Amino acid sequence: MKIAPLSLSLFLAFLLFGSSLAALAQEDPVNVTLNRVKALLKAKQPQEAAALLEGAVKKNPKAHQLWVALGFVYEETEEPAKALQAFKQAQSLKIGLPGVASKIINLEKRLQKAGPATASEKNAPENVRRARALFKEAVEEKSLGKFETAFPKFIECTELDPSYLVDEHGMIPAALYFYKEMSKRDPGALFYYGIYQHMYGDLDAAQRLLEKFLDSKPAADLEKRARQRLAAIATARQQMAAAAAAEEAARQKAAAATTPKSPATGTTASPSKPLSPVAPTEPVAAASGPSVIEVPSATAQYATSNLTELLQEADALRATKPVEALKLYSIAADRKNDPKILLTLGDLYLQENPKHGVGPAIQTYQRILSEFPKSPQAAEARRKILELQPPPEKRAQEVADYFAQHGTAHLDNPSDSQ
Predict the structure, then answer these.
(1) Which of 108, 188, 338, 358 is the most buried (most CB within 10 A)?
(2) Does residue 401 register a pLDDT over 90?
(3) What gap in Å lies between CA 80 and CA 87, rounded to an integer?
(4) Which residues of 251-286 are buried (b: 16+ CB within 10 A; e: fewer)?
């Protein structure tokens, strides 16, 4: 966004705000810098002006004039997030600066509407720019109550760039409620309802809804997309099953390692006193709700430790003995069904084995989404699941297939998109 004539006039006027003729005559460093910035902007060199001001505020961080100037220049270089921070810094140094409060309000509204913009957007690949355009339209239309067009656009946006699922502006829960009601009277809404359940992490509900949608004999293009989603769900289930099998094998191995040996020939074990303290061979039942992942059994050493002691010991072992920390957090998760414990447990699976720990980690994060969907950890779990999705090469191929099918003419008219 280039500085509008009015904003530029305001900025140039500010360059002299609060400066006396005596200060100017004495070659005040701040005013010298501001005059150089003014000259650079008139010469259409905003990047050079930004670099000059960035160095100036490091030397003189309490000069509010420099921060205001930097805010205007960041607007000129199309970096609204940086502009907002610069104006806020100026306001923190001096209240009542002309135009600054309105700048902050307008920039906050712009950033909230636009979503996670990047400075290099103009040079981004076509699919990235398309996804961003769809995201902007979806967020704006949702704010206006145009759900019928907003929610399908957000689906298309995430198919092009799944990173928008990380900060989805409340799109998923709103769409789930909307399509739940819509599906009661419109079978076609089952398609979108199923996809949003998939985004939410409920694979069972997503599969059931999409299969029911296919029973209605939909149009060929929607049928193809529904079957693609069902294939993705089936792949996720296979990965989770493989991870569960590997986890069960690890559990059995750990249990076998703690099983006491038979007494030597000619000796008899006392029936009232065990030979040695051993861990139970079965995992402890979860405090509440079914356990998604079976984990190694507790060791006898921590069988009687309270939860606080257990977590403290686990945290102390994370850096040096991640396997032991993983076992202790597994015990803690069995004792208390807590999203904070589960989130750390998922992280430890990845830390202990970055390759084979992906499946158990995803299962653990999915458990948070299923059992604690409104917790602060749910958003973090969803972000981590996205980071573990198929590699960018596969997504790039899906994007290429999309444009091979639809062409690019529709990009000039977003309203034509589904």
Answers:
(1) 338
(2) no
(3) 10
(4) beebbeebeeeeeeeeeeeeeeeeeeeebeeebbeb
Query: In terms of CATH architecture, what is 295-392?
Result: Alpha Horseshoe (1.25)
AA identity, residue 123: N
DSSP 12: H
Helices 189-200 and 203-214: crossing angle in degrees, nearest 10, is: 160
Sort residue 394 into left (φ over 0), alpha (ψ -120 to 50) or beta. alpha
CA 100, 102, 106, 108 dihedral sign is: positive
What's the rounded Cα separation, in Å, for the pair 203 and 181? 20
Q: What is the model's pLDDT at position 191?
A: 95
Size (the chain), residues: 418
Residue of 203, 132, 207, 142 whose CA lies nearest to 173: 142
CATH superfamily of 5-114: Tetratricopeptide repeat domain (1.25.40.10)
- Distance from the Cα of residue 127 to its chain's centroid: 20
For the chain, the maximum distance between any two Cα atoms, rounded to a whole number of angstroms, is 107
